[in-house]
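Extended Data, panel c. Modelled sequence:
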Amino acid sequence: MKKGLLVSFLCAFSFLFNACTPPESQPKPVLISASQIVFYNNTTLKGVTTTNSSLTYQPADYEVSVNRITYQTTLSDGTTITASGIVYLPNQLYSPNKQYPLLSFQHPTAFSNAEVPSGFNFGTVSFSYPLYFATHGYIVACPDYIGYGTADHVPHDYEHRQTLAQATVDMMLATKDFLAKKNVQWSNQLFLAGYSEGGFATLSAQQLLEEKYKSDLPLSGASCGAGPYAMSAFFKHITQNSTVGGVANYIYAWETLSYNRIYGLNKPVSYYFKEPYASQIAQSLDNARSILASFDQICTDQFRAEVNNPSSPFARALADNDLTDWHTTTATRLIHSQQDEIIPFLTSQQTYSDMRKLGSSNLSLVALPQGAHVPTEVLFMRQSLDWFEQIKK
C-alpha cells in the first residue's frame, strides 16, 4: 500500500478513537469541582445599590446563583495546576427557559486574594461588576488567575500573556462543562471583557481562542480596557518618560521582576533599580508604593539600555508579551482614556494601528477624552455592556 493511502487508511480507522482530530477540537476535561456559594433571590438583588450613577443597575426579575469552580490549567512550563474561579448564573422568574450568553470577565490587577473573584464577600450582597453583567442577562465566568484562589501557592505571573490566556481559556472550558452538567442551555454566544490587567488578559485569551479553540468557543465580541498590549512600547515609555510614582511604581516593578523570574533572567533587583530603591524593593515589593519618584528615575542605566535593545534578554521577554502582531476576526473594542496616568493611551493606539494593518477590520479604538486610570474603569463597564447588548441575540 502506498504511504499516502496508508496514512489516510490509518486516520480513517482511528477516527473512531479521535486520534486524527486536531488537538484544539478536543478540549481536555478541565472541570474538577463546582459548588454553589450563595443564591440571591430577586428581593435581595433589588436591595443592592451602586455608588456610581453612571452604572444603571437593573435587577428586574432576576435571581442569581453564585458558584465556585475549580479546574485544571497549565503553567508556561507545561506543569498542570488547579485553578479557581466564580460563575454567576442568572435566571429570570418570568422567563425560566431563557438562554443567556456567556461572558468571561477578567479582573484588573489584584494585590491580594481578597481582591479576586473568589475572594469577594458573598455573605453580604453588594454591587460588583460581575453581578452587574449577570443581572443584565449574562452568565458570567470570572477566573482568579494563577497565583490567587486555589493556585495561590505559586507566584502570580503578572502581565504574562501565556499564563493569563491559558488560565482564562481553561476557565471558559470548565464553565462550559459546568453548564452542561447542570443542564443549562446557553445561547452559544461568548463575550470577553476586562480592564487594566484584565484588558491584557482579555486580548491574550482572545488570541489563544482564535488560534486554537475557535470551534469550541467561538467569540461574538470582546471589549478590552486600558491594558499594556504593546508591551515593548509600554516599557520604553515608562523607562524614558516621567511617570506618577506611587502605586504605578509598584505595578511597573512587579512586572519587571515577574519577567526576570519567568524568563530565567535571574538578575538581582539592583540590576534594574538604583539605590536606595533597590534595597527597599528587595525587602518588600510593597515598599515600591511609597516611592514617589518617577519610574524612569529609579531605573538603572543598564536596565533602560536593555529595554531599548531589541536583542537583549529583557527586550525579548517584552516582545514575547506583545499583542500587536496578529489579526483578529472578532468584533473587538479597545477602550482607553487619553489621560490615563498608569497605562498610557499609546499602548492601545499602537495595538490598534498594528492590528488594523494586519487585517483586523472588526477592531475599533474608543479614545475617551478624559479620565484617570481607576475611575475610567466604571465607564469601561458601562460602554462594554451597552455594546454587547447591541450584539446579543
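The first strand starts at residue 31 and ends at 40. This feature is highlighted in the accompanying rendering.
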